[in-house]
Amino acid sequence: MERKTIAFYWKIYRRIMIQDIKSKMSYRADFIISTFGMVATNIAGFISFWILFQNFPSVNGWGYYEMLFLYGFSLISITPVQCLFDNNWSLRINVYSGDFIKYCFRPINLFFYYQSEIFDVKGLGQLFFGIGTLIYAWYKLSLPVTLLAVCKTVVFLTTASLIMISMQNAAAATCFWIQNSFFVLDLAFRFKDYAKYPMTIFSPVFRFIFTFLIPIAFIAYYPSLVILRPGEVPLLSWLSPFIGCLFFWLSYKLWMFGAMNYSGTGS
Amino acid sequence: MEPVIKIRDLTKEFKVLNHREGLKGSMMDLFSRDYKTVRAVDHISMDVEEGEIVGYLGPNGAGKSTTIKMMTGVLQPSSGEILVGGTIPYKNRSRNAQGIGVVFGQRSQLWWALPLIESFRLLKDIYQIPDEKYNEMLELYQSLVNIKPLLHKPVRQMSLGQRTLSDILAAFLHDPKIVYLDEPTIGLDVSMKSKIRTLIQALNEKKHTTVILTTHDMGDVDALCRRIVIIDHGKLLYDDDISNLKTLFGSYRTLKIRTGGDLASKAREIEKMFPEFAVKDDEEWISVLVDEERAKVMKVLHELEETMTIKDMQLEEIATEDVIRKIYERK
Q1: pLDDT averaged over chain B?
Q2: Residue B80: what are its φ and ψ, rounded to 5°?
Q3: What stretches of chain B adopt beta strand conformation (E)?
Q4: N or C: which end of chain A has fewer CB within 10 A?
Q5: Are the C-beta atoms of B255 and B285 separated by less than 8 Å?
């Protein structure tokens, strides 16, 4: 049997994605309400952010537009995990009920096959909101618009997404070993709320935790420094793309290790 | 010819924590290292030839699923050998998966939100089925069961029967060497059951697909299987032709007669005539369970006819179900 290439997987993914979007659209009320909910969530998040800055002109030396940049950056970087890896949220239930076994009989990568099942369109709204915010902040900060700057942004956005995905994968994979892993996943997802603040506001202990143990500092802070404050970029920022790839690989391995040792329930 | 599935001394053991009783016991369990080993499958050996339909039977918890999981490569055996199509399933999960189809009675493997035809197209991509073979298969499906009305219906909207049917079609789509069917007719009505049995039989004949069928419905077994394998407590109890199964406990047939007069008193009379056979009576029939090794049914009938007027008679083979129950209960 020939080796399966990226083109092979892309073909399958595209087909599932198109069909999934189509079927979601067919539930019109559901689609409109959930899109509306997503927009409302984003606006509410932005309003609380705005109120904060009405009272404090800056956070630890970070101005309003810089913070806005960070905010937009974190919104974009959590989009992939929301759109592409949403099925991680159901993993616990699938594993517990024994339904997970049905994913084990296909001649394709198990992780891919499982995640490909759901494409969450709602996350896209957040993407547009994030891009808007980022461009606005960029303009207000009069950052240079060069090809290099755009490339850097794309690379570091990808990095940030990888970190976010890794955290969720690892958290979801815990369900292969513990019964009620929902709180682990929920916790991992809540940590992202801290990602939109500059790490310098936290005490050294938390800074250490958020950098090395629960690497949320890589979701927005370290990558943004490269664009925002090119003068004071720590080594960690430049390393973050590699750290992103490493974490993703590790989380994938953990997930697969759990899945391959899954034995299912009786039937 | 090499068998498609070759199993030698296959054993699977699980470590299970010895649970204590009560809340206090549960607390102690948290720190307990007191494990016991449970042998779910215990030194099973068998060969399955290409094109066979094997009924894999056993009471709940006998080890059927565990065996199937090892055949499909999901579980790694504790010891023993297993070869499916020449490869070791758990070592080559992907390759093994290419050559098998799996259906679990209640767990649909189709994409829930998609119309059936889209699921088929996805499977075509996943299994890399050539266009020609794919179209051929769809035509075959159309000729066996009318699938056209189902093709554009999302799986989620299907009835249980339609979904099971679709799942079976999906499992055969890539023309696998072996298909594992786990309770394919569970919860279905009589006509759907027979439709599905006919379909499985037809696909087995046309494609020479080997079918491993686990079921609790003896109707499935009688309709489809020539060979059955029975396990219980992980051990192989029986592996032979289904026709031999019926002679396992002697060759019994039930002779049912209806006579004039009071059935109960007639039954007593018959009991005296044939003390070696069990005689029962209800409002309609007197049933005599005849062991054919002792006396032929026709001879019994003949003797009865000389002493009483027989208005009506029926002859019943012992049901597979009765024999299987006897095997389960024998230990």
Answers
A1: 86
A2: 95, 175
A3: 5-17, 35-48, 53-57, 79-84, 100-104, 178-182, 210-214, 227-232, 235-241, 252-259, 278-281, 286-291, 310-317
A4: N
A5: no
Looking at CATH, the fold of the domain delimited by B5-245 is given as Rossmann fold (3.40.50)
Instruction: Give φ, ψ of B236 to 5 degrees.
Output: -75, 125
Task: Please report, in angstroms and rounded to a whole number, the separation of the first and last CA atoms in chain B.
Answer: 36
The answer to whether A112 and A14 are in contact (CB under 8 A) is no
Residue B120: the pLDDT is 93
Residue A254 near residue A167, CB atoms below 8 Å: no
Mean pLDDT to the nearest integer, B183-206: 91
Classified as helix, coil or strand, B4 is: coil
Distance of alpha carbon B135 from alpha carbon A12, whole angstroms: 19
Question: CA–CA separation, B275 vs B289, rounded Å?
Answer: 11
Report how far apart, in Å, the C-alpha atoms of B80 and of each of A168, A261, B15, B232 are.
38, 19, 18, 18
Read off the pLDDT of residues A159-208 as tens digits, 9 standing for 90 and up: 889 988 998 999 999 988 887 788 888 888 888 777 778 888 888 888 88
Q: Is B41 helix (H, G, I), strand (E, B) or coil?
A: strand
**What is the token pair recorded at B235?**
């051990």
In degrees, to the nearest 5, what angle opens at C-alpha B193 toward C-alphas B187 and B197?
135
Beta bridge partners of B102: B180
Q: Do A16 and B111 touch (CB under 8 A)?
A: yes
A99 neighbourhood in chain B, CB within 8 Å: 107
Q: How buried is residue B130: exposed, middle or buried, by Cβ count under 10 Å (0-12/13-18/19+)?
A: exposed
Please name the residue of chain A whose CA is at the shortest distance from the CA of residue B94.
A107
**pTM, to two decimals:** 0.82
Structure tokens at A176: 């292969």
Q: Per CB distance under 8 Å, which residues of B are interface residues toward A? A: 60-61, 65, 69, 72, 74-75, 93-95, 97-98, 100, 102, 104-105, 107-109, 111, 113-114, 118, 121-122, 125-128, 154, 182-183
B195–chain A nearest CA distance, Å: 24
CA of A138 vs chain B CAs: smallest distance (Å)? 41
Q: Could you state, in order of their start, the residue ranges of all structural domains in chain B?
A: 5-245, 252-330
Nearest CA in chain A to B105: A267
Residue B133 tokens, joined: 């073979």
Q: Smallest CA–CA separation between B118 and chain A, in Å? A: 8
What angle (nearest 5°) sits at the alpha carbon of residue A11, between those of residues A6 and A14?
A: 115
**B chain contacts of residue A30, beta-carbon cutoff 8 Å:** none
Structural tokens at position B302: 């003949």
Which token pair is B111? 């994409």
The pLDDT tens digits for A199-255 are: 888 888 888 888 877 788 888 888 888 888 877 778 878 888 888 899 999 999 999
Q: How far apart are the first and last CA of chain A?
A: 32
Inter-chain CB pairs, A–B, below 8 Å? 72
Burial class (CB in 10 A: 0-12, 13-18, 19+), A71: buried
Q: How many Å apart are CA B180 and CA B168, to the nearest integer? A: 10
At residue B326, φ and ψ (nearest 5 deg) are -60, -40
> In degrees, to the nearest 5, what angle opens at C-alpha A169 toward C-alphas A168 and A170?
90
Examine the pLDDT at A1 and tell me if it is beyond 50.
no
Q: Which fold has domain B252-330?
A: Alpha-Beta Plaits (3.30.70)
